[in-house]
Structures are given as structure tokens and as C-alpha cells.
Amino acid sequence: MTPIVEVAGVTVRFGGLVALSDVSFAVRPGEIIGLIGPNGAGKTTLFSALVGLNRPDAGAIALDGQRIDGLRPHRIARLGMTKTFQNTALFPAMTLLDNVVTAAAVRLPLGAARALARDCLEKVGLGAAADTDIDDLTFPQKALGEVARSLATAPKVLLLDEVMAALTPNEMDAVVATLRELRDREGITLVIVEHHMRAIMRISERILALNFGQLIASGTPAEVSRDPQVVTAYLGQPDASHA
Amino acid sequence: MAALATLAASNAWSAEPVKIGILVPLSGPTAQFGNNIRNGVELALEDMKETGGLKALGADVELVYADVPAPNAAAAATQRLISQDGVVGIIGSFVSSITLAASEVTERAGVPMMTHSFADQITSRGYKFIFQVANKASLFGEKQLTYALDIAKRAGSPVSKIAILYEDTAYGTAQAKGLRDTANRLGIQIVVDESYPLNLTDASPLVNKLRASGADLVFPVSYFNDAILIIRTMRQQNLDIPTVGGAAGYIIPDFKKGLGDLVEGVYSIAPANYDALPAIAEKYKKKYGAFMPHEALMYGAAFQHMVKAIEVAQSRDPEKIRDAIAALRKCDGFSAGLPGGCTAFDANGLTSVAFPVFVQWRGDDIVTVYPPEVAKAPAYWRGKEVK
Amino acid sequence: MMRSLLIIAAVACVALLLGAVLQPRGYAVRVVCLILLAASLGQCWNIVGGLANQVSLGHAAFFGIGAYTSTMLQIKFGLSPWAGLPIGMLFAALVSVLLSIPTMRLKGPYFSLATLAFGEACRIVATAATGLTGGPQGVSVPFAGNSWLLLQFRGAGAYVPVFVGLFVVVCVAFTLLANGRLGYMLRAIRENEDAAEVTGINTLGVRLAGGAISAALTAATGTMFAQFTFFIDPDIVFSATSISIRAALIAILGGVGTLAGPIVGALVIVPLEELLSAYLSNKAAGIAPLIFGLILIGIVVWRPSGLVSLVTQRRGRT
Amino acid sequence: MIAVLQALADGLMIGGVYGVIAVGLSLVFGVLGIVNFAQAEFMMLGMYVAWFAWRYLGLDPLVGAALSFVAVFCLGALVQRLLIQRIMKAPPVAQIFLTVGLLIVLENSALLLFGPEFRTVKTAYQTRALMIGPIFVSVSYLSAFVAAVIVSGGLWLVLTRTWIGRAIRATAQNPMAATLFGVDTRWIYAVAFGLGTGLSALGGGIVLSYSSVSPTSGSQYVVLMFTVVVLGGLGSVMGALVGGVIVGMIQSLSTLVMPIQLQNLALFTIFIALLAFRPQGLLGSPSR
After folding, report:
1. Inside any domain, residue D189
2. Is the ipTM of this complex over 0.95?
3. Which residues 226-245 in chain D show a CB within 8 A of chain C?
4. Is the distance from CB of B23 to CB of B81 less than 8 angstroms?
5. Which chain A residues have any C-beta within 8 angstroms of a chain C C-beta?
6. pLDDT profile of chain D (288 residues), mean per 10
7. Of B150, B158, B66, B155, nearest to B113 (Cα)?
8. Domain B2-135+275-337 is classified in which CATH homologous superfamily?
9. Rounded (10°) angle between helices C81-103 and C203-229
10. Could you tell me the pTM of the whole model?
11. Does domain B138-270+357-386 have CATH number 3.40.50.2300?
């Protein structure tokens, strides 16, 4: 099967700092990938590069066989790849529903966009909170709200940046189930950054591990968790003890 | 006259004062000039009362002021004077653009307006209700050059190269155009022809160009702030080129206050000068503490002309007053102080009598030195008396 | 949306009624015209200033372009201002797109100050380009008597329906933008540009579109202004204080980003200026603008989010 | 060549003066985050104070500028406490609005108090110039420039070497943290606003030594001041001085190749272009 996302030799520098160095991997359609690594390993930078918020200094990115590196984020979003923001970035002066409507309205007339938006909120279990102001949402609600907003763009690939932070174990199980369902029903490919090891190991079919901007391991959760480099990278990382 | 007075007194409305609108900038960047105009008009009203002119009208004249700091406010203020206050005529407004905007309203409303603004367009639009007591700006430019050339010739120092420095406003560009056209016609070489933004923060670039040009004569057309900077910078660089100011900033008392002895001998073109009207000028000085600037004199004359026209028309109908203004030739009071000695108008509403004069600074005063028929003293050219 | 359209219709009807009953060549009807023009100008500004939160201080550039385009076409080629109007609008939209190349990425005060400088630059160009604009001496619209074709009338009263038309167009444009797809996108960009991009919004294109619409409508207001005052010069129509900053003030005083904001702002500012000028011009020079300034300060300290917040907040509480 | 040197000399000196009148605006933005459209009006008030000091106390305006600073510092601090403090948390549009209201009030207060006349001082050095080779150096510009350099040096010392200076800088960087270190930020805001407006007033005194004042003198400088501080970087004190010199240079050098009428067009074009490439100004840091 041809990969839905293909990353080849991507390097991103900020001034003198190399945030990503020669990263290459491929994602198959419908896969759920976990992206792990200690703080500052380059996970968010990689997401930003994938959706076009950072332009890679070297390398190539392809979505569904089409080169997308260098395209502006809204073009990439319309081609089918978008992401959520760490710490969430909903539009604060709008209701939750309007946030999602905004994303849907990019390609639909307003009436259809509203219907789709309600639908997306139902999918993540936030149907009841549609008319709430953003400031009145809990953090987990905001994170799921962002997932809903991303869904409204009809993504083929969804990059989720720590949507499960601050969840109780029960809530986390619910979210994991929701995400699985999205993949199973709609075939959306998911790439997930998560600090919480138990969650990520459970949901992911394959894990990519980053450290200091380099891809150090790739494989099934079991393989990666035994990988000596990954273990070293996580030594002293409090999150590692959760695993 | 006595019959007229009885007639007026017998009218029922005679107790109601006749209102005249004074539309001038009393705040904003040209507030000083609006203030001078207010002084001039009030003195002109006093003068008329003293000389008995108002009795014939059978009613008092009331001045209604409208402060117009910028042209955007002109139209509404003019309409307000006409419809709310019921003025029968309007005097104003120093700044040409304000006058132009206001006269669009007076024309449509059929109310006469008298102005001393210079802009050429004012009386070239074919409007019936606007009267310009001074000459057009282009004529000021022309005379500025021809007068200066004549004085220089008589002084035995012919001029072949001139410099024109002017602010890029309506007043500056129109006057500069008159200068430029005349110089070209007479074959005088223009070595500097520079406009600059109003309210300079630094005059050095202008003066550097002037110094490098080797001009025999310089014509700066500017308001006070820029005049001060230009003259001071010229003196710093020891440039003693004879200077012929373009009215405005060069013939107000502040010019002397600001520059002291540097102003001695500076020439300027002027629409009129107070030394033609010594008694009134003396009164003005006593009352307001400085010599009477030309705008006070000119607007005073315009005001008196309008009041006189109301008397002649014996009516408050603006249309009739307009006809009386057009027909009247008034040669007393403030009008006598204008070059030509009268206020009177041609078919376009432009003065048919007045001509620009040349003044020169002597001590604390400006003295009319040209043309000879109105000169009060001989001109000095580079310190030498010109015969 | 319905409520907004009702507000617009109500204001338009009241204005038309006033235009019909007031003395057509009087002062009061002129004030009505000035209020309509001010409300339209503020609403144009509100499209970028309120919806996209780009605090432009250079709208005089578009206003002046509109005023000069129609006026010069009329003087030089005898073209009716009805034809000059769309040309001016198009030209202003084009200039706004060009302007956004350097200013697109500027944020907050930097954007404001860059647009301020741009407005001033346009004033300088209009002053210097004597051949094109008539230069600092200004130009008078030739008066040809009452004429719908030439969009000019002897008295102010006849302008009321025209200005009501302008006002309705501008306000409906604002309402459609605010409640339509573009409005959602503009607000999203205002809130978080990166997030807007990754949800598929072409932030550059949406901003350009919003800016161009605002510029074009401002130009239309400029044309109307020129036809109303019959005399324009660069200092009048490209003025930083009496056009650019005033446009912003009208919207801010009423309430930024709301339909009612510029309407309320114009209803307060114009009559206030006129009243102060009428009653205080005979008094000491400067007292009228001083009191005007004090009232502005009072309002902003009392209601920093504009006078409209008086109503909306009370409704919010109940 | 001489013309270029002359233009450079003129641009440098006038630019130094621009720097001083604008540095206060930069300080106010840097510390309070407020774009103050009334800043040039405080400069105008400073010019009046210096004029009265010259007229009635016989002080040279360069000396009288110290009085301008003191008087306007007090006024500025008062204005901050009474008005600006109330809108510190208001949306930026409201802040702009307030300072525009303040501009109108100050200009017309001056008109009521001092009348519409132009006032100017007479000093012995106003009409003198030094010849350095073929270059004219105006004594009044030179003394204004020297005064500007001294003031900037003084400001730099105050900001870096005194407790109050450090407190001001700390507040600018992080008001919350400054509070934790025992700084009463409300007081600091008042001092910073007083200092900023006072510096512009001081600059006004310096400008008066060769120019003139009327109630509308502020409007002559307001756009220029903004150009200076944005070029240098809003909020950057040293940037304002560099910006001033750059603006002075652009104004004087551009007149060598284009009409003087267009000197500000040149300035604004460079201004907008520079903003496009470096939105934070030449010396500003990327975030405020």
C-alpha cells in the first residue's frame, strides 16, 4: 500500500539550533501512530512542519503522493492534513459550535457547515456543550473541541498534540475509544503526541521515538519500549516510569 | 439720509439686529489669523458706529462667529450661519480651502460672502455670491517679481538669477506659479524652484540649495514657523541675498518679535498695509498691542463694505444685498486703506481697484515702499536708499 | 442577522423621514447627511478594524482615492460620478491589495502606524502630483444645477436618499460579512492566525478580501463626500486627523466590531461637534474642541468598549 | 561630495534632536504598552515652559528645558494616575482613543491659556555657524545635538544604574514578576509615563532653541515621532536615538536626489518597507 504520509530527510533549524535533523518515516493509510520523545525532542516542531507552519530547511514531505512541503498551512489542510495545538488554540471569542462551524465553512455554505459542526461535536461527545463559551470549558473539553474543529476540515490525516493531557484514567479510556472509532469508521489516519505512556502504548499500532531532533526508533509499542536508545532517552524522565 | 433713517425706524423689524456671519479659524493651526480678523472686524464695526454709519440702517449689526479650524467643518458651519442664525451675509475665512468649501454653500443658498483669500479659483468659477477684496495669488506672485526687479534696477544691481522657495499649500503653489510664469516671460533665470512641506522641522536642505545656486534674489513664500527657520538658517550661513517674502508669515508682528534685527530690510509683497490708514492703525495698536496686520485691515474693509451695502439695499434680502455689494464703490473708512483707496468689484466679484504693494521692515514697523504712488518711504536695497 | 437588518432598516427609515420633513435647504438636514456619511465611514473602517482587528489609521488613503477619482474623471472627461464611483472603488481595492503586501504580517501598533504613514504618503503624492489631482489648490466639482445624473443638488435634503443608500449598502455589507462565511474566517484570524490557517482558512486571502471590500466602500463614501461638499483638496480628503483617525473614533466610540457601533458613534460625535461649535464659537477660542476632547476622554474612561456595551451588557446580565 | 557631507552633518544633528523628543514615546510604549498619540502635545507644553523660562527668567531654552522636564514630568505622572491607569487593561483601540482625546484637550488648553500667537526665543548663537572645512555646522543645531547626547546618556544611566531605572525595566519586561520583587507597578507606571512625557518636553525645550511654538506645534511632530520610534523599535530606548538619526539622515540626504517636497514621502516609503522586512524595528526585540 502507498503511504499516506511520507517524510524524507526533513531538517528544521531555528537560528543555530537544529530542531529536527534528517527525519524520515512513512505512515500507512488508516494507521494510528504514536510519536514519543522527551521534552524538546522536536515532536511539536515535526507537527508544525507537517502542516506547513514551519518550512523545512531540507527534505521533502508528501501527502497522498503529492509534495506538500513549502505549501501554506491552509492548502495542506484542504489537501487533508491538519493538527490540534498543544495547550489548545480554540478561538476564544466564539462559542464552541462557532469554532467548529468556522472550520467547516471553509468549504461548505453556512447551513451545511452548521450541520456538520454539530455532527463533529457529537462524535467527540461534546454535543451538549455546543453553545458554551470557550472560557467556560474544562481543559479536556477544550482539547476535544479542537479535535472536533479539526474533524470539520474532513481530514485524511489528523495530528493530535497532547489531547489527553490532564485526563483521569477513565476519561482517557473514553477518548482512546473515541479516537479508535474515528479511525475505524472514517478511516482517518492518526498521529498522536502524548506524554502519557500508558495511553499512547495502548492506542498506537506503531511508535516513532524522537530525541534531540532525530528519529531514534520505530516499531510496535512493545519493540520501541525495549529499545535501548529509547530507554536511555527517557531515563530520568518522570513520564517514563508510567510506562 | 434723514429720510432713510425715519424709514428704517418706522419698520417693525428694525429692532431686530442684522446678523453677519464671521466664518474664521479661531482654533487649529491658523487660529492666529482668525483672531486678527476678529479684531479687525470688531474695530471696523466700532469705527462705523462712531462715524454714524450704522444709524442709517435703523438696526444694530450683530456678529455671529463660527470657528472653522479645518475645511471639513466649513460647509456645515456655513449652513448653520445661514439657516439657524439667519445671517444675511458672511465674511471669511482666511484659508483659501475653507473659503472655497464655504462658498459652495453660500452660492447655493444665495447668500453673499466676502473674502480676502487669495486663491485664483475663488472668483473664476463664475459664482455670483462670492466677492474677493484682494487680488488673486498669481498676481501677487507676478508683482512680487516685477516690483523687486524694478527696485533692484533703480538701485543699480540688476537681477538675473532668482530662487523660489514655497510651501506646498494652495497659497504657496499659486503664488509660486505667478512668480515662475513671470520670470519665464521676462527671461529671468530661476536657479532654485523648490516647494517644501508646510511646517518644516529643518530648513537646512532648502538653504543649502539656495547657497549653492548663486541666486541674486530669493522669494520665500511661507508662514511664520517656516519663515523663521529659513531666515535664521540663511543668516547662519552668512547669506545676505535680498529677501522678498510672500506675505503671510513675513508681515506679522511676530516676525519681528521672533527674529529681532534680522528682519530689518526684509521685503514682502502685501495686499495692503496699515500705514495707509494711520488713525485706524493707531487705534488698533492701542487696543490689541501690536500693529494692525493686513488681514485685519482687509476683512475690516470687507465687513464695512457689506454693512454699507445692506444700508444701500435697505433690505435684509441676501439677494438684494448681493446686488448692492456688487454695485457699491466704497472709498471711506477701512476701504480707504486698501491700495487703490476703495473697495469695488468687477463682474466676477474680484476687486476692480486693488493692487499688491511692497512693504519693507523698518524697526518695529513695515512701511509701504512700492509702487511709488502709494509708497510712504523710499525703499532700501542692500542698505542703500533707492531713488 | 435579522435583528441587524432590522436596525439598518429602522435607521434608514428614520433618516428618510427626516429628509422628507426637514427644510430641504436647511441646516438640520445637512447634519443628518453628515451623520449618515460619518456612520458609513465608521462602518467601512469597522470591517477591518472590528472584524479583523486591524486598527487601520490610514483609511483616508481610500477615501481620498474615491473622492479624487470620481471628481477628476468628471472634470477631465465629463464622466458622471455614477461611473466614477465604481472606478474609484476598484482603484481603492487595488491599492489596498498592494498596501497589504508590506503590511500583511504586521501586528498591533505596527500595523496602525504603517497605515498611518501610508495615508500620509498618499497625501504627499496627491499634493505633489499636480497634473493628476490639481495639487494643493484643490478642485471644485463643477456645479450644473440639480441633477441625478451628475449626483449633485442645490440643497442638502436631496442627498438624504443617496446617503441612506450608501449607508444601507455599507451596513448590509458589514452584516453579511460579520454573519457570513467571511465573517467567521475574519474573526478566526483575529483570534488566532496559526489555528485559522491549519483549519484551512487562507488567512492572507481572507484579509485581502476584507481589506479590499473595506477600501472600496470607503472610496464610495469619499465620492459621495466630494459630491456633497463640491470642493476637495489633498489636506481635506487625505487628512490623517479628520478622516483616518475620525473613522476609527466613530467606530470605537460606539463599539468596535458591532453593527450598531459606528451608527451610535456618528449619532454622538456629529451632533456633539455641531452643538459645541454652534454655542461656543462666540466664546473663547478653543473652548469648543476642548470640551469635545474632555467628553471623548470621559466616554472612554467610563465605557472602554464603547457606548453599545451599555445595552449589550445589561442584556447579558438579565 | 561636499553637499553629501553637509547633508550628513545636518541629518546627524537634527536626528539627534528627533531622537530625544521620540525617546519618551518609546519609553511609554515599552513600559505601559500604550501608543500615546498625545506625546507630541506634551512636547508642545515643554516648549511653552521653556519659552516662559526664557522670557521671564532669562534662561536659555537649553537650560529652561530642565524646567520643562520637571513641570511636564509632574503633569504626565498625574495624567497617568488619573486617566491612563484606568484604561491600562482596556483594549488597545480604547487606549488610542483616550490619547487622541488627550491630544485635543492639551492642544486647545494651550490655545486658551497662551493664545494662538507663535512664540520664539532669541539667542546669540541662533544665527552663528562653525565652519569645519567646507561644512557649515549650525551652532544652534550643534548645541541642541550636544544637549540631546547628554540627555540620552543621562537617561541610560538612570535606567541602568538606579533602583528606579531597574524597577522600570523590570516592569516593562514582566509586571507580574516585578510585583513579586516588591515593586509597586502602579507607581512605576506613573513614574515611567512622567519620565516619558517629561523627556519629550525636554526635547521640546531643545527644539525651541532654534524653532518656534504655537498651540499646534505638536501636530508638526507627531507622525515624525512615531516614525522615529518604530524605525528604532517601539519600546527600545537606544533604538529611538538610532531611529532619530536615521530619520534625520533620510530627510536631509533624500533632498540631494529628489525635491524637498517629497522628503517625507521618502521617509514613509522607507519606513513601510523596513517594517515589512523587520517588523520589530532595527533595535527592537521580536516580542515587545
Report:
1. yes
2. no
3. 226-227, 230, 234
4. yes
5. 51-53, 72-78, 82-83, 85, 89-94, 98, 101-103, 105-107, 109-110, 113, 149-150, 152-153
6. 90 92 91 92 97 95 95 96 90 89 95 92 87 88 90 90 89 84 86 95 94 92 90 82 92 91 92 84 56
7. B66
8. Response regulator (3.40.50.2300)
9. 140
10. 0.90
11. yes
